[in-house]
Amino acid sequence: MTNAATASPSPFGRALCAMITPFTESGSLDLDGAQLLAVRLVSQGCDGLVLSGTTGESPTTSDAEKAALVTAVREAVGDRVPLVSGVGTFDTRHTVELALQAEKAGADGVLVVSPYYSRPPQDALEAHFREVADASGLPLVLYDIPGRTGTRIEPETMIRLAEHPRIVAVKDCSYDFLGTQKVLARTDLAYYAGCDEHILALYAVGATGYVSTVANVVPAQLRAILDAFEAGDTPVSARLQQRATPLVELMMAAGLPGTVTVKALLNSLGLPGGSVRAPLRPAGREAARELLAAYEEFVAA
């Protein structure tokens, strides 16, 4: 017996990592490090990678850096996994330009966040996403994270946008479980949990998988949550999700952004991470020690 029939289509895989963007000691883009991380993630269970998202510090990387990152990661992983490139900005014209750039660089899809700061009403928000979807040949992932953007993509807006042939998926950080289920019930959109604590909960009601920040450091362990559920062993899947809770909380809900905590852990583990770009600041020594202790306890369990 399996639970696989509950899942919605997976245009970009099921177990996706919202990959950090590594920098060198001087603060420049570390493409060699990005390639090493990408290969590691794929070899340990990620079947899709999201570049230049929130975790990838997209607000502080240049357009040229975003394109170079896609090109380098594609070179490293080949066609083994889909690459989704974050192109969302608060400017529709700029977002369109980035979508076309991502397509040229070799991305398989684009992640488009709601325009932040300006807080457009729903009709303007819908027009924004449609214009971006019309601009290139790439499929589009709607990124709903109102806690950062100030604007929710309302369920009725999602349902209308699902009619567009290139709007195919959602990265869900809405914390609106009821709204998510309404969209799942009325569309064919592929839903990805964008909050690590919701991986199993959303998967169990028909989501496609996850786009995870925590997967930067424990890709295989998070993939195991989905695998256990698909094998029909819901109790094991639940235990795996619960076992991840302390690390998820420390990395995502303890006062430091996920980018900061991931890079602290990767640096502690001798993997490419490097600095974060201002206005973010690196984790302090005590925070880095706590993160490493939680990581070691989790992987030893």
From TrEMBL:
Subcellular location: Cytoplasm
Superkingdom per UniProt: Bacteria
Entry EC number(s): 4.3.3.7
Keywords for this protein: Amino-acid biosynthesis, Cytoplasm, Diaminopimelate biosynthesis, Lyase, Lysine biosynthesis, Schiff base
Molecular function, one GO term: 4-hydroxy-tetrahydrodipicolinate synthase activity
Catalytic activity as recorded in UniProt: L-aspartate 4-semialdehyde + pyruvate = (2S,4S)-4-hydroxy-2,3,4,5-tetrahydrodipicolinate + H2O + H(+)
Main localization category: cytoplasm
Site (Part of a proton relay during catalysis): 54, 117
Active site: 143 (proton donor/acceptor), 171 (schiff-base intermediate with substrate)
Residue numbers binding pyruvate: 55, 211
InterPro entries in the record: Aldolase_TIM (IPR013785), DapA (IPR005263), DapA-like (IPR002220), Schiff_base-form_aldolases_AS (IPR020625), Schiff_base-form_aldolases_CS (IPR020624)
Keyword Amino-acid biosynthesis: yes
Pathway: Amino-acid biosynthesis; L-lysine biosynthesis via DAP pathway; (S)-tetrahydrodipicolinate from L-aspartate: step 3/4
HAMAP family in the cross-refs: DapA
Quaternary structure annotation from Swiss-Prot or TrEMBL: Homotetramer; dimer of dimers.
Role according to the record: Catalyzes the condensation of (S)-aspartate-beta-semialdehyde [(S)-ASA] and pyruvate to 4-hydroxy-tetrahydrodipicolinate (HTPA).
Family stated for the protein in its record: Belongs to the DapA family.
UniProt-recorded name of the protein: 4-hydroxy-tetrahydrodipicolinate synthase
Organism, scientific name: Streptomyces hokutonensis
Lineage, top ranks: Bacteria, Bacillati, Actinomycetota, Actinomycetes, Kitasatosporales
